[in-house]
Amino acid sequence: GEGTPQDERLAHRARVVSELVQTEIDYKKDMRTLVTVYKEGMQSLPFVTKENLDHIFVNVHEILEFSESFLAALRDAVAPQKHEQLFGNLFLHNALAGNFDLYIIFCENQHISDMT
């Protein structure tokens, strides 16, 4: 039969949390590919300078490092054995600490890398 409204909310929340974690896993994988395949591959091209690479990949290493630590903290925050899953605090803490500013730096630099 049908579950209670609370059961439905909990099931919806579980789906949202699962999608959030999977999105972070995929993002980390994509960032690792960006570094290991594209950046490292471009380093060997004779016409690509260090300055070009610095503009194109401005802070990808820092973003990747943050992504890895954020994913680990997110997985811990939503661990099924936890009585309460207060993962919203994780976002709030990182926002207040300015940790998401890494993405602003990357995005703001894109117009420079487009010209490179």
Describe what you observe in this structure:
By secondary structure, the protein is mostly helical. 75% of the residues lie in helices and 0% in strands. The protein has 6 helices and no strands. The protein has helices at residues 5-43, 50-56, 60-77, 88-96, 101-108, 110-115. The protein is elongated, with a radius of gyration of 19 Å. The N and C termini lie far apart (60 Å). The mean pLDDT is 88.
Q: How would you briefly describe this protein structure?
A:
It contains six helices and no strands.
Overall helicity: over 70%
Shape: elongated
| Structural class computed from helices and strand pairing | mainly alpha
How many β-strand stretches? 0
Order of helices and strands: HHHHHH
Strand content: under 5%
By DSSP (H or I, 4+ residues per run), the number of helices equals: 6
Provide the low-confidence segments as ranges. Answer: none
Radius of gyration: 19 Å
Amino- and carboxy-terminal Cα gap: 60 Å
Give the averaged pLDDT, no decimals: 88
Major sheet attributes: none
List keywords for this structure.
116 residues, mainly alpha, elongated
